[in-house]
From TrEMBL:
Pfam families, sorted: SEO_C, SEO_N
Residues in Sieve element occlusion C-terminal domain copies: 521-652
Source species taxonomy: Eukaryota, Viridiplantae, Streptophyta, Embryophyta, Tracheophyta
GO biological process: phloem development
Protein name in UniProt: Sieve element occlusion N-terminal domain-containing protein
Domain Sieve element occlusion N-terminal: 20-290
Length: 661
């Protein structure tokens, strides 16, 4: 690098107008020493505010040629021991820099920061502003009293006050004086907002994510406040010494106003986050302590807004929220992307409770930003629901709470609340989808009772076709099968049919029914796997048992080329996939002797024998449903924890038949 380039780089590092924030930070951090120095910055700021509010008002009157009085406000005068020597040292550092340029201003600022190395950043700023305020207020106080007070007149001459306040000089420098005064006001405002931000550090940073970024920037903001004060002092010195040189302040004015705007936005955002955090805690308290259900719902849905009437789908009328008083409430929470099929999950529940006065369903639509198109879609959806519907044109007040505490994502959920507003189940949707009204009243206790049952085939997949429940009740063997490979399905159908009609099976009076899930009706397979997924979700956070393992294995077969599940009535015998289960039925001749004793056991043992010689990597796709997902999952046939991969999938079709437009 040439000597000229090195010199240019050195100059750049001393010119703040072309330095990045990172470069400024690097330089100013070297001046800062962390210490336990105690200093009453709040009292000093109060005195500085008193001083500058009145002195800048005097300047405004002088510039405008008016005699407007300041609002009668009693200044707060705190008990405070002034750090006068420090203030005089800072003032001396800033005084008489009659070579007005950015490099000099930067050098002076760094010298001040070195002097104040043991103070916190907000203290550095207010000490510098206090040192300036001493001189600035003294100057304009003399300007005010010199016409009538002989002492003020003599001191004013010593301080060259008349050189700036005589009519001719005032006329000449009016714009420059106004610019200085406005910059002083803006810099004071910047420091005041920095103090506001510092006070917010008493809050938990988790509640105020915006505060972290703002606090990180404070050292740079303090630097700009100090260098602006330094530049203002230099400009005043140039004016009262009648120097031909002047300091260009417009760059500092732009920078200070940008910082002020940014800080105000950060303060506004922090206050919003404080309100949200306090609201979040309020909701938590409401759900944890006995409260009338209506009061809980008002806070959850509307918070401070006036509660809106509910729409009653059965009567197509609006009703007041008082209809929910002392009721058990099922909050049906979803986005507007809900399907007809998902709505139908709750219809049997509604039919069973509509004659029960103490149970009600309420749909809460989750919309982050309403549009005319979404309002039309809402009206269509509303017309399809016979239960109560929240009609609210804004964002649900408790949206963030619903996402964070109840883990709402996109899929519909049902939160069960007692008449006292206590959560009885944070998401019973999958419980309802898996077991229907058999799981009533859909509390965690009723879920626990059902989870203790080992026979789940009828309740989970029995509703996909009317014939299945008859087979289940008749305690028949049922071979459910399907897969992504049509050739595999054809092969399995051939061998399974031969097995079911084998003479040995008939002689043993064994009844075997075959049911292909992957038929032409795509909704059949969708309902089957929805049932399996819902059962998995209801059990995934519970201790692992035989049923959990069976469901887990079944879910891993969802995208296999072929799979089969053998049940005896409502209980699962075994399940398998691909070549393993295909060989089991194809090689029936090798194990048929055992069916006289127990067909299910013979099938299971031969299947396990083939599986022991076949290795397969198991893949488990968990739907992104509401609620917590497990951090780890162990595979039933392997002692190790499964590896975790994240995948994203898009199979949407704008013309999907089940989607509600």
């Amino acid at each position: 690098m040439s000597a000229k380039s090195l010199l240019q780089n050195a100059e750049n590092e001393r010119n703040p107008l072309i330095m990045s924030d990172e470069q400024i930070l690097e330089q100013i951090y070297s001046t800062h020493v962390h210490s336990d120095t105690k200093f009453d910055v709040d009292s000093l700021l109060t005195l500085v505010e008193n001083t500058l509010r009145r002195s800048t008002h005097i300047v405004d009157n002088v510039v405008q040629g008016s005699h407007a009085s300041l609002e009668t406000i009693d200044d707060k005068i705190p008990q405070f021991k002034s750090p006068l020597c420090t203030l005089k040292q800072i003032a001396s550092e800033m005084a008489c820099k009659l070579a007005p340029n950015e490099e000099t201003a930067h050098k002076t600022t760094m010298a001040i920061l070195n002097k104040l190395s043991k103070y916190e950043w907000d203290a550095k700023a207010v000490l510098t502003l206090a040192a300036f305020a001493l001189e600035y207020s003294d100057f304009w106080l003399l300007a005010q009293y010199q016409p009538t007070d002989p002492l003020a007149k003599s001191v004013a001459i010593l301080k060259r006050v008349p050189l700036l306040t005589r009519p001719a000089a005032l006329q000449k420098h009016r714009q420059a004086i106004a610019e200085v005064n406005n910059l002083v006001k803006a810099t004071l405002q910047v420091i005041e907002v920095i103090f506001e931000l510092e006070k917010l550090t008493s809050y938990d940073i988790k509640d105020l994510p915006a505060l972290g970024l703002a606090i990180e920037q404070i050292p740079v903001d303090v630097y700009w406040a100090i260098i602006t004060i330094v530049s203002v002092v230099t400009q005043i010195d140039c004016l009262i010494t009648e120097s031909e040189d002047k300091h260009e302040l417009s760059h500092y004015g732009q920078k200070i106003n940008i910082i002020l705007s940014k800080l105000r936005k950060q303060i506004t955002l922090c206050r919003q986050q404080i309100d949200e955090a306090e609201y979040h805690r309020k909701l938590k308290r409401l759900f944890q302590s006995p409260t009338e259900i209506i009061e809980v719902l008002k806070v959850l849905i509307f918070n401070k807004d006036a509660p809106q009437p509910l729409f009653h789908g059965a009567t197509k009328t609006t009703v007041e929220m008082t209809v929910l008083k002392k009721k058990n409430v099922y909050l049906f929470i979803s986005s507007l992307d809900i399907t007809e099929e998902e709505i139908s999950v709750l219809r049997p529940v509604y039919d069973s409770i509509k004659t029960k006065e103490n149970y009600k369903i309420v749909w809460i639509p989750i919309v982050e930003a309403w549009t005319e198109q979404l309002r039309k879609k809402f009206e269509v959806l509303k017309s399809k629901m016979p239960w109560y519907v929240v009609q609210y044109s804004g964002i649900i007040a408790g949206y963030k709470y619903i996402k964070e505490e109840w883990h709402f994502k996109k899929n519909p959920m049902v939160v069960v609340l007692s008449p006292q507003g206590k959560v009885q189940h944070s998401n019973a949707f999958h419980l309802i989808q898996s077991h229907g009204t058999r799981a009533f009243p859909f509390t965690t206790f009723s879920e626990q009772q059902i989870n203790n049952e080992i026979n789940w085939v009828g309740s989970v997949v029995g509703n996909i076709h009317p014939i299945i429940n008859g087979w289940v009740e008749g305690q028949k063997y049922i071979l459910f099968y399907g897969g992504k490979d049509k050739e595999w399905i054809q092969q399995f159908s051939k061998y399974a049919s031969a097995l079911a009609n084998d003479v040995a099976v008939k002689e043993a009076k064994i009844s075997i029914e075959l049911f292909c899930v992957e038929k032409e009706d795509k909704s059949l397979a969708k309902r089957f796997w929805s049932g399996i997924e819902s059962l998995f979700v209801t059990k995934v956070q519970k201790p692992v048992d035989a049923v959990t393992q069976e469901v887990q294995k079944m879910l891993s077969y969802k995208n296999e080329s072929g799979w089969a599940l053998l049940s005896k009535g409502p209980s699962v015998v075994t399940s398998g996939h691909g070549i393993v289960v295909l060989k089991t039925v194809a090689e029936f001749e090798k194990w048929k002797e055992g069916i006289k004793k127990d067909f299910g056991l013979s099938f299971k043992e031969y299947h396990a024998k083939i599986a022991a010689t076949t290795h397969r990597c198991s893949h488990l796709e968990i739907p992104n449903v509401a609620g917590k997902l497990p951090e780890t999952i162990k595979w039933p046939d392997c002692p190790r924890v499964m590896e975790i991969f994240i995948s994203y999938k898009c199979c949407h079709n704008e013309n999907t038949a089940n989607a509600i437009k």
